[in-house]
TrEMBL record:
Lineage: Bacteria, Bacillati, Bacillota, Clostridia, Halanaerobiales
Job of this protein: Tetrapolymerization of the monopyrrole PBG into the hydroxymethylbilane pre-uroporphyrinogen in several discrete steps.
Protein name (Swiss-Prot/TrEMBL): Porphobilinogen deaminase
Native source species: Halanaerobium congolense
This protein's encoding gene: hemC
PANTHER family in alphabetical order: PORPHOBILINOGEN DEAMINASE
Family according to the record: Belongs to the HMBS family.
Domain of life (superkingdom): Bacteria
Reaction(s) catalysed (UniProt annotation): 4 porphobilinogen + H2O = hydroxymethylbilane + 4 NH4(+)
Gene Ontology BP term (one): protoporphyrinogen IX biosynthetic process
Porphobilinogen deaminase C-terminal domain: residues covered: 227-299
Length: 313
C-alpha cells in the first residue's frame, strides 16, 4: 500500500503553457488520489527573465528548469512539471524524471503565415529560436531568411508583425494546448522538419528519495508514450549535445514495433544526416539501447563533426 502525504506542492514555470501542462498533471493525480491535495507553485526561471537574449548568450542548457530544480532540492516543492524538451540530458545527482504523464502533437507547424511553406515568396522571413528548425528549413528551402526569436508562444506570434516576419515555426503541442489552433497555417511533414527529441512530452521530476511519490506518478504515466520519449532521450544523451543543438528525433510505436528516426544537420542546411532504426522489443532497456545505437550511427556518419564545428564557433 502506498503511503501518501496529505499535501504535495508542484513547481512549474509561470507561462500560460507551463501552467496548462501543470494543471493537466494535477488533475490526473487528483483524480487518482482524491484524498490528497495538490498545490501549484509558480517559479520564475532565467529563461523567462532573459527573453531578449539568444540561448547561446545565457548558456541555454537548463535555463527553464534550474530554479525549479533548486526549489525541489531544497524541499520547497515535492515535484516539478516540465516540458521534457526543456530538461538537460544530465540531471542533478539527487533528482530524476519519475514519469512521462502526457504527450501532445510532437510535430512542428508554420504559424501566422498567409501561405503554406512551399508557397511562401522567395526570401521569406521566418522566425524561430531553434537551430534544429533552422537547419532543416534551409535544407528544404535555402532561400529562406531565418530570423532568431525567443519568448513564450504569444510573444513569438506577436513578433510576426513587430519584426516583419512571414510566419513563425512553433511546436504544434503548445498551440494546441493553449487553444490557438487557428494560428496554424500548416503542420510540417517530418520529411521537412523532424521534431526535437521529447517534443510535446510532459515530464515530472522528483527527488530520488521520494519513492512513494514515484509509485503514484507511475500509475498516472502513459506507458507507450513513455517508451517513445525515453528512446528519443537516449539518442540525445548519447549525442552528448544540449537540447538546443541541431538534432532531431522521433520515436513511434505502431503494430508492436518502435521505429526511431533521428537527424543531425549543418546550420546552413547544406547537410542533413538522417537515419532510422526499429525494434520489436518494447521495454525500457531495449528502446534506450536502440536510441544509443542510432546516436553512434549518426555520429559516425558525420554528426560528431557537425557538433564539433558548432562548439568551435
Amino acid at each position: 500500500m502506498i503511503k501518501l502525504k496529505k499535501n504535495y506542492i508542484i513547481g512549474t514555470r509561470s507561462s500560460n503553457l507551463a501552467l496548462k501542462q501543470c494543471q493537466l498533471v494535477k488533475e490526473k493525480l487528483q483524480n487518482k488520489f482524491p484524498e490528497v491535495e495538490f498545490e501549484i507553485k509558480e517559479i520564475s526561471t532565467a529563461g523567462d527573465r532573459e527573453r531578449d537574449k539568444k540561448f547561446s548568450e545565457i548558456n541555454g542548457e537548463g535555463i527553464f528548469v534550474r530554479e525549479i530544480e533548486l526549489a525541489l532540492l531544497a524541499g520547497e516543492i515535492d515535484l516539478a512539471v516540465h516540458s521534457f524538451k526543456d530538461l538537460p540530458t544530465e540531471l542533478p545527482e539527487d533528482l530524476e524524471v519519475a514519469a512521462v504523464i502526457d504527450r501532445a502533437n510532437r510535430h512542428d507547424v508554420l504559424a501566422g503565415a498567409e501561405k503554406k511553406l512551399a508557397e511562401l515568396p522567395e526570401g521569406a522571413r521566418l522566425g524561430t529560436g531553434s537551430l534544429r528548425r533552422k537547419s532543416q528549413l534551409l535544407a528544404y528551402r535555402s532561400d529562406l531568411e531565418i530570423v532568431p526569436i525567443r519568448g513564450n508562444i504569444e510573444t513569438r506570434l506577436k513578433k510576426i508583425k513587430t519584426q516583419n516576419l512571414d510566419g513563425v515555426i512553433l511546436a504544434a503541442a503548445g498551440l494546441e494546448r493553449l487553444g490557438l489552433q487557428d494560428q496554424i497555417t500548416e503542420y510540417l511533414s517530418t520529411e521537412i522538419c523532424l521534431p526535437a527529441a521529447r517534443q510535446g512530452a510532459v515530464a515530472v521530476e522528483i527527488r530520488k528519495e521520494s519513492t512513494e511519490l514515484k509509485k503514484i506518478l507511475k500509475e498516472a504515466e502513459a506507458q507507450t508514450t513513455a517508451l517513445e520519449v525515453w528512446a528519443e532521450h537516449a539518442f540525445l544523451k548519447e549525442m552528448k549535445a544540449g537540447c538546443h543543438a541541431p538534432l532531431a528525433a522521433e520515436a513511434v510505436i505502431e503494430d508492436q514495433k518502435l521505429t526511431l528516426t533521428a537527424a543531425a544537420g549543418e546550420l546552413d542546411g547544406s547537410r542533413i544526416i538522417r537515419r532510422k532504426v526499429s525494434t520489436n522489443d518494447l521495454n525500457l532497456n531495449s528502446v534506450q539501447k536502440l536510441g544509443r545505437k542510432l546516436a553512434r550511427e549518426i555520429k559516425a556518419a558525420g554528426g560528431a563533426e557537425i557538433l564539433a564545428s558548432l562548439q568551435n564557433n
